């Protein structure tokens, strides 16, 4: 019946769409999977990236920020000059689509009452830095050139040394981006559409990216690996719910002890794109830019560079009440996250490949077995897979809970099954 009634009609709609769209799905996917979601981005949609676990090139917060921010900007320059080559499928000459890179920088998600939008500006010559409840605008260029790592470190240190207090409502302002989307959209329209609030919000939303100089110390600690990793992951995922700007394409986070990480918004691109940037930054920071013997960035400071400027806000009490409400709901969500992150040392993908098994398939079956042993039942399982072999491709869904995987799990938990039977 479908083949003679609804099927041909849907096929005609798709054929019609092919006349004006470059991809059958991606525009709908972006809108309906991401932008129309009315729940919090924090935890539900945004994701994070960790620092190298066992390497800490410096414990100076401003220095780590200086090198890493410079590395991020070098990557942006390569991107602007179209010097980043498309990624090729392993062992082939087939390129993956690079369209998602276009909105990596100078991008922010803008809240709306019914649907959000993505705002991307062609260029941005500043970043916005958050520290102790204050927002600072930092110019990235001086005398027509990009700031050097030591000069960026100098700017970060000036922010760390700034004794000024947050303005009323400023400290928890970013909680608006952590809560429900509709209150944030209404609040933005009512209180951030004119005057100094609009200017300051524009500075945030049109910044190259957002930076948080975090007051806490995070990272893997050998003496307490489990608790330290859990704390590190949760800090990157949600922090205090008011110290990351969850609407920005990504927030770069540097902790007090020099560890760092990222929190990325999901609508503009998928994780492999951010991972490509992050791998470049980690390699450039640790192995190419490097640090002086005293832990500072290499090079000299420059007293002629103007100080970072504080963003100015005039946030009325009614708006502060909305901020508090958003913070409360976001905090409840963050406290409900039961997250356990740990380094697994027993074996890696090498051993799995020696067993002539796909590492991905191995992990998926391990997840099925673990879930069944924990819950005593199977459930629908979603594994993301990339579709970037196609123009503007994003992701598709692999349903890894199959009849075969269920049979494997049942054989593994059945004590009467022999090893030979389980291998079948």
From TrEMBL:
Belongs to the carnitine/choline acetyltransferase family. The active site is at residue 266. It is found in: Mitochondrion outer membrane. One of its GO terms (molecular function) is carnitine O-palmitoyltransferase activity. This is carnitine O-palmitoyltransferase. It comes from the Eukaryota. The gene is CPT1a. Keywords: Acyltransferase, Fatty acid metabolism, Lipid metabolism, Membrane, Mitochondrion, Mitochondrion outer membrane, Transferase, Transmembrane, Transmembrane helix, Transport. GO terms for cellular component: mitochondrial outer membrane. Its main location: mitochondrion. It is an enzyme of class 2 (transferase).
């Amino acid at each position: 019946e479908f083949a003679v009634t609804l099927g041909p009609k849907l096929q005609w709609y798709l054929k019609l769409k092919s006349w004006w769209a470059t991809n059958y799905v991606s525009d709908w996917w972006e809108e309906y999977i991401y932008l129309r979601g009315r729940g919090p981005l924090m935890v539900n949609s945004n994701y994070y990236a960790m620092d190298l676990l066992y390497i800490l090139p410096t414990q100076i917060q401003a220095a780590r920020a200086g090198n890493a921010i410079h590395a991020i900007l070098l990557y942006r320059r390569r991107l602007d000059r179209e010097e980043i080559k498309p990624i090729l499928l392993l062992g082939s000459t087939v390129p993956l689509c690079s369209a998602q890179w276009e909105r990596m920088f100078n991008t922010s998600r803008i809240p709306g009452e019914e649907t959000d939008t993505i705002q991307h500006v062609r260029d941005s010559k500043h970043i916005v830095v958050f520290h102790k409840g204050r927002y600072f605008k930092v110019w990235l260029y001086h005398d027509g050139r990009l700031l050097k790592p030591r000069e960026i470190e100098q700017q970060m240190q000036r922010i760390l040394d700034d004794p000024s207090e947050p303005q009323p409502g400023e400290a928890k302002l970013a909680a608006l981006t952590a809560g429900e989307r509709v209150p944030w959209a209404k609040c933005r329209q009512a209180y951030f559409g004119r005057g100094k609030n609009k200017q300051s919000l524009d500075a945030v939303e049109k910044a190259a990216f957002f930076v948080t100089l975090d007051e806490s110390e995070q990272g893997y600690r050998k003496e307490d690996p489990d608790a330290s990793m859990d704390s590190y992951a949760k800090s990157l995922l949600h922090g205090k719910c008011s110290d990351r700007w969850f609407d920005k394409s990504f927030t770069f986070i540097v902790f007090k002890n020099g560890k760092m990480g990222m929190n990325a918004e999901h609508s503009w691109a998928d994780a492999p794109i951010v991972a490509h940037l992050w791998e470049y930054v980690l390699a450039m920071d640790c192995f190419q830019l490097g640090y002086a013997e005293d832990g500072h960035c290499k090079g000299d400071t420059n007293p002629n560079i103007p100080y970072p400027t504080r963003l100015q806000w005039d946030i009325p009490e009614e708006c502060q009440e909305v901020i508090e409400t958003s913070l409360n709901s976001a905090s409840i969500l963050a406290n409900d996250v039961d997250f356990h992150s740990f380094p697994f040392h027993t074996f890696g993908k090498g051993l799995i490949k020696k067993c002539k098994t796909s590492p991905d398939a191995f992990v998926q079956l391990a997840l099925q077995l673990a879930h069944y042993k924990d819950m005593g039942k199977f459930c629908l399982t979603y594994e993301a897979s990339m579709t970037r072999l196609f123009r503007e491709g994003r992701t598709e869904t692999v349903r890894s809970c199959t009849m075969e995987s269920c049979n494997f799990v049942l054989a593994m938990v059945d004590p009467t099954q022999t090893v030979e039977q389980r291998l079948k």
